[in-house]
Amino acid sequence: MDDLSYGARNKRGDWAPNEPASTAPVFTFPPQPLKFLKWLPHYFLPYNVLFALSAVAWWYFVLPEPEVMKALAWGWVLKLFAANAIAVFLFFGAFELKLYILRSQGNRFKYNGKFPAEQCSKAFFFERQNVDNMLRTFGTGLPIWTGIEVFVLMAFANGWVPWLAFAQNPVYLFVLALLVPIIHETHFFLLHRAIHWGPLYKWVHSVHHNSVNPSPWSSLSMHPVEQFFYLGTMFWHLIIPSNPIMALYQLHFAGFGAIPGHVGFDKVELGEDTAVDSHAYIHYLHHKYFEVNYGDGLIPFDKWFGTFHDGSKEGEKQMQVRYEKKKARLNAKAEAKKSNETDRAGA
């Protein structure tokens, strides 16, 4: 495919789409029914249906009977961990193999023209981004993923929380399945905004932002604290009346669903004339500019709070205005502090 038919590349080799990034036409006023109907298939395909089916597969083919899950036992816990690790290796690795190792589509549709393997940095273990990202994913991410999963499944199995059966609650659970991405987006935005606060950013979130040029293995490459709270979106199903399969879907949506935002390409080519949209541009801009696009665009939180960047020149100007205002506030605060210290010294 000719990526220049869809966007432009600058002198550095970075590609950007012709159309500015936009949020989903869901929470818009006035409503846009035709635009919503055109967008609706993207709410399900290809990712959301895949993550939902994976939750069903885990329930029927990986997990034991609920009676077994009432108690901790190495057998079923290790089997679950192995299934999670193999699935992450295959799913994340498929994108990595195609786009970053074989480079089957070169840098077509790649936002950042360079590949992480071409750049070394002391910010990473062994100065290699992919090595660092994989160590963090498998070293802390997968154990935390599995630990959260085990706790929530035990809660359902022991009756600590309500377990709604599909046969008795089909409509409610169907609606809940539709709301899983919305729960994730709300959870992610609130968490993401919080960990950009100075001390938390320095000690926790900066680990993830070391990957300025994200690739598939960057998806879950986080500080363990961030991994716990990010994957902890599954805990919402201990509060909301739910079903363990719905809880698994919520977890898989967060875990496997981190891939699209970090794949680094706007489109993944499937053939000469076909490709799948990654919907990664909004989050790529966050990695590029740090203080924009704290959400993924399903809910227009960033538009509501004035932190949205659509990748256009106008978006760039708006971001610079915010930076200048922030700089002015910090300078004024520093001056006030300096003035107070001078007054106290004089007294």
UniProtKB/TrEMBL annotation:
Residues 332-347 have a biased composition (Basic and acidic residues). The chain crosses the membrane at residues 43-61, 73-95, 144-165, 171-191. InterPro entries: Fatty_acid_hydroxylase, Sterol_Desaturase_Related. Its EC number is 1.-.-.-. It is found in: Membrane. It is an enzyme of class 1 (oxidoreductase). Residues 178-307 form the Fatty acid hydroxylase domain. Its main location: membrane. Pfam families: FA_hydroxylase (PF04116). It comes from the Bacteria. Keywords: Membrane, Oxidoreductase, Transmembrane, Transmembrane helix. Residues 328-347 are annotated as: Disordered. The keyword Oxidoreductase applies. One of its GO terms (molecular function) is oxidoreductase activity. PANTHER family: STEROL DESATURASE. This is Sterol desaturase family protein. It comes from Labrys neptuniae. The lineage of its organism: Bacteria, Pseudomonadati, Pseudomonadota, Alphaproteobacteria, Hyphomicrobiales.
